[in-house]
Design brief:
The complex is a heterodimer. By secondary structure, chain A is α/β, with parallel strands linked by helices. Chain A folds into two domains: about 220 residues, Rossmann fold, CATH 3.40.50; about 60 residues, 2-Layer Sandwich (Alpha-Beta Plaits). Chain A is about 35% helix and about 30% strand. Chain A has nine helices and 14 strands. In chain A, the strands form three sheets. Chain A has a six-stranded mixed beta sheet with strand order 6-7-8-3-9-10, with helices on both faces. In chain A, helix 2 crosses helix 3 and helix 2 packs parallel to helix 4. In chain A, about 40% of the residues are buried. The longest helix of chain B is centred in the middle third of the chain and has 37 residues. In chain B, strand 1, helix 3 and strand 2 form a beta-alpha-beta unit. Chain B has a four-stranded mixed beta sheet, sandwiched between helices. Chain B is built from 18 helices and six strands. Chain B folds into two domains: about 270 residues, no CATH class; about 140 residues, D-Maltodextrin-Binding Protein, domain 2 (3-Layer(aba) Sandwich). The chains are: A alpha/beta, B alpha/beta. Chains A and B meet through helix 2 of A and helix 1, helix 8 and helix 9 of B.
Chain lengths: ~300, ~425
């Protein structure tokens, strides 16, 4: 499958400050990709280079399988971390303007803007000026602006910050729906719980370098803190498997600690063959733990 | 180009719709009209008042002659500072002076008249003693002597009375005297390619209008470009915009859009001015016939006005990309103001010697060209290659500045809080983008 976004060793320095340090990553088509990292790690700098706002000193940005070209931007929707709209413009006029900048006709932009505003419960505000809207409302407007031209790649920088829980759910639902429609979504955030629930793959950036990248499940299972809790009937369904680091057996309940890289699914299959399993739970280290650990390691 | 067009459109429509634009567009003519009308109205009110003046002269003849001059209906050509005295219906207005003649030119009389002025019995007196007249020195004493129009009128009256009297003494008839004293209608006309070109007054008037229009326009709309860039930076909208428009398209669109707003405003003003002053222009057409402006001058005006606007507003765009607030903008706008002030200072010497080395070199500097090259074209059309070179230089400079500002603009979005120093700015320009 082609990568929607491919970064090949991109590098960016400002003066003596290295913002992004030879970073490479691949974002699979149709996946939800999380870009994580502490403040000032280079997330926004990376995103800016992805969409040609700045140009890398070294390396190559490839979108949709081709070297970056501004024409491709018509297939990209961008919600920047720094939200901004023209304060004195009317909401609908503003959305139509941004839609047209992405190549839509005025009538089409208008129609889509009204549809989206209805979905996000902001229809009553479309004739108001932007400055009359609350911050959360402005953020939803900006999300609509990023979605108007039905982009294949959606880049959302901190999409949930500043939203109340019900609005956050609304935005999350939109993201899930877009994923189902086959869109690729890249989002950056500090909120690990959302990443854990939404993302297929992640890249953890620190000091401009990628310190952890890949499939979220694989990362978690490879992290070496894997724990399995299992309830069974009959004989113990395992022996001293080479994948098992430690065992704590209570007769019909056992807690296992897997060796790094061990596949819990394999363990479950073997166990099923030997005994009746009533509960099997893979306890992974939380992403938060991984995040903190990894950043600590590289500090 | 499609995107630049959208930016122009947005910039234009949003501005034209704004209350500030509508108010400014309507208020300006009111303001201009009042600066022209109020002094006229004031002096009309004053001219309705009859000034009571005493002519003190040892010689009754001269006093009578002066009185006659003052009571005669004024000829507009001789008194440019005075509004027309005849009312619209053609009847003469009431006389402006009530004149008494006093033949006692003594010091005691002078003291008494001074007392009369203080007491408000008379408005002033004109001392025409024989000795003073022989010395060709006349003193007018009054409570207020700041009305220069009145002083000039009195001086002319005295002068004309004396001349007429002396000519009459040499045996000239009244009609002969009138003929001799008739003023000459003088005009300097420039010859170009064997044909008559613009007159001296026209060159001056048009050059002056150009200087003022360019100055005001650059001030108002250049600053508007700068403010709109700062607004985009502080509202952070530019990050969204830059994901679909290049910085160059954005800045160019902004400059053209704001410029179009300025042109619209000027056209509206000209239309209003035209509608209101048409009767006046028709009436004074005889006077305006001297002001002959050739077609090439009007074309040059348009070309240099527009090029000048683009050049200066691009400079404002570069400055706006460096700063983060309006307050900072005020501090950095002098680099844009200096060249225009310089060219205003240079305009007069260039106008006087349009073919000098000074005129040539200064008019080739793109920042001075809008005013100086235009002034040269009006005064004495320079060789075509010079005009072409000058326009090419201006276009190149504008294009270069646009590239420069879009670079600063792109890097500027990553920087917060402080204005870059010059060395920092140089580094910004070296960044790949």
């Amino acid at each position: 499958m082609t990568a929607t976004v491919e970064l090949r060793g991109i590098h960016k320095t400002y003066d003596h400050f290295v913002a992004v340090d030879h970073l490479s990553l691949n974002i699979r088509e149709g996946s939800v990709y999380g870009l994580l990292g502490p403040n000032g790690a280079g997330k926004t700098s990376t995103i800016r280079m992805m969409i040609g706002i700045t140009i890398p000193d070294e390396g190559e940005v490839r979108l949709f399988g081709e070297t970056f070209h501004r024409r491709q931007l018509d297939r990209v929707g961008y919600l920047p971390e720094e939200r901004g709209l023209y304060k004195r413009m009317k909401v609908l006029d503003h959305l139509v303007f941004l839609g047209r900048l992405h190549g839509l006709s005025a009538a089409e932009s208008r129609k889509r803007a009204l549809d989206w505003c209805a979905r996000l419960h902001i229809s009553d505000w479309v004739q108001k000026k932007v400055e009359e809207l609350s911050k959360g409302m402005q953020q939803k407007i900006q999300l609509v602006a990023a979605l108007l031209h039905d982009p294949d790649l959606l880049i959302l920088d901190e999409p949930f910050s500043g939203l109340d829980p019900s609005n956050a759910v609304m935005v999350k639902d939109v993201m899930v729906e877009l994923k189902k429609a086959g869109k690729t979504i890249l989002f950056s955030t500090h909120r690990m719980d959302q990443v854990e629930r939404l993302c297929d793959s992640i890249c953890l950036i620190d000091h401009g370098r990628s310190v952890l990248e890949g499939d979220l499940k694989k990362i978690k299972s490879s992290y070496g803190k894997n724990t399995v809790q299992m309830q069974y009937e009959g004989d113990p369904p395992f022996d001293h498997d080479e994948h098992i680091e430690s065992v704590n057996n209570y007769g019909n309940y056992v807690e296992l600690r897997l060796k790094p890289g061990a596949d819990a699914q394999q363990l479950l299959r073997t166990a099923c063959e030997r005994a009746r399993i009533s509960r099997f739970e893979l306890m992974e280290p939380s992403l938060e733990e991984i995040f903190i650990d990894t950043v600590k390691q590289h500090a | 180009m499609h995107n630049a067009w959208l930016v122009i459109q947005r910039e234009y429509v949003e501005r034209i719709r704004s209350k500030a634009f509508i108010i400014m567009t309507l208020l300006m003519p009111v303001f201009m009209a009042s600066t022209i009308l109020v002094p006229t109205l004031l002096s009309d009110m004053k001219s309705g008042v009859t000034r009571h003046i005493v002519l003190v002269a040892g010689n009754t003849l001269i006093a009578e002659a002066v009185k006659q001059e003052l009571m005669a209906p004024p000829k507009p050509s001789e008194q440019p500072l005075r509004p027309q005295e005849t009312a619209a219906d053609g009847k003469p207005a009431q006389p402006r002076y009530a004149i008494d003649i006093d033949t006692a030119a003594t010091d005691a009389e002078r003291e008494k008249l001074r007392g009369d002025i203080s007491a408000g019995r008379i408005d002033g007196f004109l001392w025409l003693s024989d000795s003073d007249l022989a010395a060709r020195k006349v003193v007018y004493s009054a409570k207020d002597v700041t009305d220069f129009g009145e002083s000039i009128e009195l001086r002319n009256a005295v002068h004309s009375a004396i001349v007429k009297q002396q000519l009459a003494r040499k045996g000239m008839s009244g009609a002969e005297v009138e003929t001799v004293l008739k003023p000459i209608d003088f005009d300097a006309v420039r010859i170009e390619k064997g044909k008559e070109g613009a007159s001296g007054i026209a060159v001056f008037l048009v050059s002056f209008t150009m200087v003022m229009l360019l100055y005001v326009n650059v001030l108002v709309y250049g600053f508007a470009v700068m403010r709109s860039i700062i607004e985009e930076k502080s509202s952070r909208i530019m990050e969204v915009l830059l994901s679909s428009v290049t910085a160059k398209q954005l800045l160019a669109g902004k400059i053209i859009g704001v410029g179009a707003v300025g042109l619209t405003q000027i056209i509206i003003w000209l239309a209003i001015a035209g509608a209101f002053s048409l009767p006046g222009v028709m009436a004074s057409r005889s006077m305006m016939s001297n002001v002959h402006i050739p077609m090439s001058g009007i074309v040059a005006f348009g070309v240099f006005f527009i090029l000048g606007y683009f050049l200066y507003s691009t400079m404002y765009a570069a400055l706006g990309s460096m700063v983060n607030s309006d307050a900072e903008a005020q501090q950095v706008q002098w680099p844009a103001m200096l060249p225009i002030i310089f060219s205003i200072m240079l305009a007069t010497p260039v106008l006087q010697h349009p073919n000098s080395q000074l005129a040539f070199w200064t008019s080739m500097v793109p920042f001075f060209a809008p005013i100086l090259m235009f002034v040269r074209i009006m005064a004495e059309t320079p060789p075509l290659w010079q005009i072409a070179l000058c326009i090419a230089l201006m276009l190149l400079t504008t294009w270069g500045l646009l590239g420069l500002s879009s670079r600063i603009y792109r890097v500027g979005i990553l920087m917060y809080g402080k204005r870059p120093t010059l060395p920092e700015l140089r580094k910004w320009l070296h960044y790949a983008g």
